Amino acid sequence: MRVPIVAGNWKMNKNVAEAIAFVNQIKASLPPASQLETALAAPTLCLVPMIEAAEGSPLKLMAENCYYKDAGAYTGETSPRALYQAGIHHVILGHSERRTYFHETDELINKKVKAALKNGLCPIVCCDDTMGRRVAGKKVHWVVSRILADLHGLSDDEICHVTIAYEPSWAIGTGDSADPAQAAEGCYLIRQTIADMYGDNVANNVRILYGGSVTTVNINSLMAKQDIDGVLVGKDSLNPTTFLQLVNH
Q1: Is there a catalytic annotation at residue 37?
Q2: 25 and 125 belong to one structural domain
Q3: CATH of the domain at 67
Q4: Could you report the per-residue pLDDT of 108-162, keeping only the tens digit for each?
């Protein structure tokens, strides 16, 4: 059974004091983990204080990125081993902002995915399509090659610990969300790609999320779709009241 997940991605927002206050405001009002997994990805500086503030609650903390080495002379990078030891559960990898601004390649992301899994982290691997394909009215094909590259070399057991987030780059932070049918098509195509790679049994155990201008208005219609197992939320995860509305939709 795929437990649905609502995950917030704060990006480079909030300081430590703000992050702690946010956790204290929401932690008593979260649904049981058996019903819905609730998670927040925060800047690295905020993660350990948030873990401490969230103790005893269902909230899970996620990193927004990690490197593919456990330790070494890699100034400014974050160790996947250190994240796991700190109590982090998930790490977002391959977000379109990192692919665009920091020129991350599928080869690099594949290394990061393997390093995260080796250290006990569950990667949330992001993939997108292009506005050009959407405007042209074509079905989403670009995500297929991206999934093949990002998950290359993973075993059946490893892939079951990976979550995929389908995030059309044209919908991130724009307010222009994919309609539920578009979002479901992208998630369905991703699941079929995983089925081609690993078989139907494995594909049916992999969670696939939709991300891109998710709001309190559209979350119900998105999560009602069979192949959408949850959402990755940006702007609407920054407000504790709105975030609680999302997780208690």
Answers
A1: no
A2: no
A3: 3.20.20.70
A4: 999 999 999 999 999 999 998 755 555 666 666 667 788 889 999 999 999 999 9
- The pair of three-digit structure tokens given for residue 127, joined into one six-digit string: 């993939």
Return the HEC string of 114-141.
HHHHHCCCEEEEEECCCHHHHHCCCCCC
Q: Determine, yes or no, domain membership for 246.
A: no
Concerning whether 167 is annotated as a catalytic residue, the answer is yes
User: Do residues 149 and 105 lie in contact, with contact meaning Cβ atoms separated by under 8 Å?
Assistant: no
92 and 23 belong to one structural domain: no
Residue 228 placed within a domain = no
Residue 96 lies in a domain: yes
Assess whether 83 and 177 both reside in one domain: yes
Percent of the chain residues topping a pLDDT of 90 = 81
Distance between CA atoms of residues 119 and 182, nearest Å:
35
pLDDT score recorded for residue 192: 92
pLDDT in tens, 22-53: 999 999 999 999 999 999 999 999 999 999 99
- Catalytic pick among 37, 97, 104, 167: 167
Q: Is this prediction's pTM over 0.90?
A: yes
Q: Which of 37, 64, 90, 95 is catalytic?
A: 95
